[in-house]
TrEMBL record, chains A, B:
GO terms for cellular component: apoplast. It catalyses: a primary methyl amine + O2 + H2O = an aldehyde + H2O2 + NH4(+). Residues 294-708 form the Copper amine oxidase catalytic domain. Homodimer. One of its GO terms (molecular function) is quinone binding. This is Amine oxidase. Its EC number is 1.4.3.-. Residues 168-267 form the Copper amine oxidase N3-terminal domain. PROSITE patterns: COPPER_AMINE_OXID_2. GO terms for biological process: amine metabolic process; response to stress.
């Protein structure tokens, strides 16, 4: 997450709780909540106010969403997420469990499918008896975190204790509950009002406080709350009330301290920061383009059965996850020579994020977000906007998540799946235009994209998995949304003394866009033609020729090195010490004897430069290398640790990897981190054009030959006949 | 170039010359040349056989191409390429010039527009009197290279001498003429036939020989010729006759030496290497997808007037160039706040390529191609294939180039221009779904692409310039086509002795894909809001906090450093020493006082690791850094030097830059090199799936704010109504 998402929750206390409970605030009249459009919210609301209705779920009935009958859904695949009925079964089982029965004070921080053993899943085939269904529950009971496995058949509950630092992902109530806390403080309210901001215009964010080893942090969950003025704009992020921070005890709902050190910093005016079309078109619409659309008159070429996607030569399983966002599983590609479906990857997802801001001052030093483990990357993935987030003919997949009392609720349109043709070329060659070599052969490139967009407070992360028919998988992350900005007294750079450093860019009067990094760490459980794989570095090294050997003095020589243990696979990328990174199946060779493999191909990226002993960097030690390889271990999935909130860095990928276990000819997991340095610029204001980066998983001697040699080109008669809508 | 393109020319000697002159070869009956489809070739043919018809040009009359009346074209813009009438005028002027009049032996290696002075072009506006038209001619007369300026109005010819090493770009006749030479040698023919290859099945390539400082290279133009068998496949590249190389004197048309050292290496069988659809569909078509198409029922949003393209907020000039391929000039973007067209880049093009193969042995060490200067990157850009190379609604721009006697000829469909919508997102934000913050705003991303595909013998380079409405320019190069492979006795890796190194990957029986690099060096004459610019490195450096300053130990600090001289701007990229690279206008600031600029954003790339003293690396010294900045100098355009063929590295970007001239607050040129390491894999056989990389030129405090804040989202009613072709 970035600034702390929690939009979903901010408004609740400000809008609803305050409205209902503290009616001495003057609030603008809010329209009725449109449950047709925002069922996710409606069900969240149910969760808070109608716990007696907890067994019900509001069914979306609006035409723009797939009107799936989620209530009657039954799992069709061992990796299908929990169904509504299963969520309710979990609640029933837990309600009679001693742990919860005896306690009135508990939260269910997470309820998701407990995946069956990998071996069982790999063996399972359609038509087989369903594998036993289990749920994995993270619960906090009387301040103690539990990880429970709930057997849905037997009702058996197993309770695991984890001796790691940190707390589970915040619940909605955690995040919402803290926002009202500072308002109980006269000191805090005075800080706000003396800046000329009406309390009714307040919009506050719950900001994870990190962990710095201080006494105040011991044995309690803390959070920072900072606020903004939304007067005159929905883009309240551009109107920070700089210097006012409340440190709040999340469980006691008490203010620990309030700091107020930016009295002289005005709240920026927010003029023309509201990016909504309805507002912007008042400034004159900028209509630059005729309509353009991806059209498929015969429909898309993929099918989705439950969560199983089949497209072209690909087959894989997609499910929404409250923490990871999208989980892609059992990725298989069909070999055109044998027609066999071959395993590529057992599981891939965004395991953790790390977003440190580069400002060590009082109101900013703690902004070092770990969005997946602190806020839930999937929880923040709002419904996608058809025709804009995804093109026509996209399929939208809903999520069913559990609220903190276990009630299931619907997150509609959370993931979209669509085919993409961007005018690109899959392969081509033009030959000599004469006689028997009169050849121009070109094949257009069409791909399949699985997308979600997690709007973690200000920032929006667009997470794509893109599949190409040539066997390549591209994992791409796009950053858009809104900057986290800092108030300043300056209105122009010429006012800034020569020696003063702003920690960012003056974007507009009184607004600094603070420099920050983004790291997105992917878990990639590669299973190239089977689970036992090896990781091979193919280094390119300069080789000098011997005297008299050649008129050349040097050439590049490829040197293969199999990584024996984890430390062999802790890799920092270097332009002048290049390698290819292969995951091969050492037991399988191509016809001519090359090891069958997939390679990781990094794209543009950035590395963390923070001091390894800096507390945020210690907690996010998984960003220390771009590549890691670990032996498969079911419990090692979250790069920052199972409990990331206020974690101390004792359960990270780095800690696991430093055990230096053997990784040769084993079931191995590849980890890759995509990084961005972001020095904001004025073009990012008041909303940022998308910046993207990606990496590829690419077949390397996996196929015997180009697997799309036999695909046809486009012919005129394949293409649709279209009319403009208004002339149709 | 890769292996040496010259498809266009190979076939001529083999097919036509041999057929006509050496009728003792049995040749398959070839169909008549289809001038409707291959007018470029037809006119080339005219050039060779009908020099009396030199003032005519065959006009394409086929419906798939824009039937433009090139004969009557007149220039509309100072940077418009020479017209047919102008080419003919050049020929007329030169025919009476003493240099040519007195010599029967000359070649015109290049005739292109001599650009008017930059200042004049910048001042010129539509409606102004045309600027005087001049041609720049590179001619070789009696073995001496001349660079001439021909004033088309006055007929005045100015002759410049350049005291640099090397020879001009080869002419078509150079390349074609050498291919028959080895066949005069009984020794050569015996080498071929003893390998069981019929001379009628021969396909030979003219391979630039580089420069290695040996005596044999002195004062003569040399080329290597290697041959393949095309028996049973158009993909002759996969059937190398390994170990047979003829060294040929290009001017005397004499064999210098023949080496034959691969007698025991069989010619690979070439089975299933023919990638043509007509052949591949015999194996069973792999139809994976329903049709998908980019549809624009109201037509594209761009216009092309002559060579001037206007699209959305962009305006720029595009022209084909025989050496560079596509030249983009006078790139301007409209500021949405002021409606003013603002300068971004005066000129951008691919200045040179460097493609060293990593094999120092006899038949391979010299393969270190510099495609633009040796073969002509634009000359090799074949007609694009509509619906496959470019989507529907693309505009196709023809090129008119001159053959070596000055005759103009048409290269139809050389460049395409199209709008692209790939399902991507220009910007988005989703907010809290309640009350006044019920916001999800998303804008789809549509871009404009200018594309050419240069098929330089085996390799195909797809060169895109992509323009985004947010002000970003993406320059992308895609590599496809066919590998340059090496014959081997091995059929399986298990036959290869442990200590033997293959210089590549065994791709199929008897075929090794040799490791190589690709470097594409771009010339980017940035003019950010005017010609006087500065280059600024914005370094991100780790800053430790002082004791007690902060709970944080470190953060990243941005440190701006203006490059004073060229050496300050010789940059090797480092992941752990990151910078942003800004070209700013030091005289212009934004409202809040930031310098107006554009930044260069590298994508994934590779660096050369060759020894700087290795002769190929010396000649390609422009690849030594990823970034260079030079002061604008009209004569410094070709990174490898004006005369690249057999050049010795005395006229490269490195040589110019090492003069260390001042570059602060000057008209400066930015150079960027995109690199690829390519370790071939079996998927690249027998034709390679496209691999791409790119870099961006991105506004950085150029606009006051996000310039596409006011663009509308897609609405259902904007999109077309389509039917499948067969149901329409």
């Amino acid at each position: 997450m970035e600034a702390k998402n929690l939009w979903r929750f901010l408004v609740l206390p400000i809008g609803v709780l305050l409205f209902l409970l503290l009616t001495w605030f003057h609030l603008p009249n809010k329209g009725a909540l449109d449950c047709n459009l925002y069922s996710g919210w409606c069900t969240s609301k149910n969760r808070f106010y109608s716990s007696s209705q907890a067994n019900q779920i509001k069914k979306p009935s609006f035409s723009s969403y797939n009107n799936q009958h989620h209530e009657s859904e039954i799992p069709q695949h061992p990796l299908d997420p929990l169904t509504i009925q299963e969520f309710n079964r979990v609640r029933t089982i837990l309600s009679t469990h001693p742990l919860f029965k005896s306690s009135s004070k508990y939260t269910l921080n997470s309820i998701v499918l407990e995946e069956p053993d990998k071996k069982l899943v790999l063996k399972w085939k359609k038509g087989d008896a369903p594998l036993p269904r289990k749920a994995s529950v993270v619960a906090v009971v009387k301040g103690v975190s539990h990880v429970l496995t709930v057997d849905l058949e037997t009702g058996l509950v197993t309770d695991y204790e984890y001796s790691v630092s940190g707390y589970p992902t915040m619940t909605v109530e955690d995040m919402v509950g803290v926002l009202e806390v500072p308002l109980k403080s006269i000191e805090f309210n005075r800080s706000i009002t003396k800046r000329g901001v009406k309390l009714a215009d307040l919009e506050c964010l719950p900001i994870s406080s990190g962990w710095y080893g201080t006494q105040v942090e011991e044995n309690r969950r803390l959070i920072k709350v900072q606020c903004y003025s939304k007067e005159g704009t929905v883009n309240f992020y551009m109107r920070p009330i700089e210097g006012v921070t409340a440190l709040v005890d999340m469980d006691r709902k008490e203010v620990v301290t309030i700091s107020d050190n930016g009295e002289n910093i005005p709240v920026a005016n927010g003029i023309n920061t509201d990016y909504r079309y309805s507002i912007q078109k008042l400034n004159g619409e900028l209509r630059l383009l005729n309509p353009i659309s991806l059209e498929q008159p015969k429909g898309p070429s993929f099918t989705v059965e439950g969560h199983l996607v089949k497209w072209a030569n690909w087959e894989f399983h997609v499910r929404p996850d409250p923490r990871a966002g999208t989980i892609i599983s059992e990725v298989k590609v069909r070999d055109p020579d044998t027609s066999e479906l071959r395993n590529v990857m057992y599981k891939g997802f965004t395991s953790e994020l790390f977003v440190p801001y580069m400002d060590p001052t009082e109101g900013w030093y703690f902004k070092t977000y770990m969005d997946a483990g602190e806020y839930g990357f999937g929880l923040q993935a709002m419904p996608l906007d058809p025709l804009n987030d995804c093109p026509r003919n996209a399929y939208y997949m809903d999520a069913v998540f559990a609220s903190s009392d276990g009630t299931p609720y619907l997150q509609p349109n959370m993931i979209c799946i669509f085919e993409r043709y961007a005018g690109d070329i899959a392969w081509r060659h033009a030959e000599c235009p004469i006689t028997d070599l009169k050849v121009t052969e070109v094949r257009p490139k069409v791909t399949l994209v699985v997308r979600m967009a997690a709007a973690v407070a200000n920032y929006d992360y667009i997470v794509d998995w893109e599949f190409q028919t040539d066997g390549l998988i591209r994992s791409k992350v796009g950053l858009s949304g809104i900057l986290m900005v800092k108030g300043t007294t300056y209105e122009n750079m010429d006012q800034v003394p020569n020696q003063e450093y702003l920690y960012g860019t003056l974007l507009s009067e009184n607004i600094i866009g603070v420099i920050h990094d983004h790291f997105i760490t992917y878990y990639l459980d590669m299973d190239v033609d089977g689970s036992d794989n090896s990781f091979v570095k193919v280094k390119l090294k300069k080789q000098e020729t011997s005297p008299g050997e050649s008129p050349r003095k040097s050439y590049l020589k490829a040197v293969r090195k199999v990584a024996k243990t984890e430390k062999d696979a802790q890799i920092k990328l270097k332009l002048y010490d290049p390698s290819e990174f292969h995951v091969v199946n050492p037991l399988k060779k191509t016809r001519v004897g090359n090891p069958v493999g997939y390679k990781l191909v990094p794209g543009a990226t950035a590395a963390t430069l923070l001091d390894p002993e800096d507390p945020p960097q210690k907690r996010a030690a998984f960003t220390k290398n771009q590549i890691w390889v670990t032996p498969y271990n079911k419990s090692e999935q979250w790069a920052g640790g199972l409990f990331v909130y206020q974690s101390q860095g004792d359960d990270t990928l780095q800690v696991w990897s430093n055990r230096d276990r053997s990784i040769e000819n084993k079931d191995i997991v590849l980890w890759y981190t995509v990084g961005f340095h972001h020095i904001p610029c004025q073009e990012d204001y008041p909303i940022m054009p998308t910046v993207s980066s990606s990496f590829d998983l690419k077949p390397v001697n996996f196929f015997e030959r180009n697997p799309i040699l036999r695909v046809p080109p486009n012919f005129q008669d394949d293409l649709p006949v279209c009319k403009a809508h208004d002339s149709a």
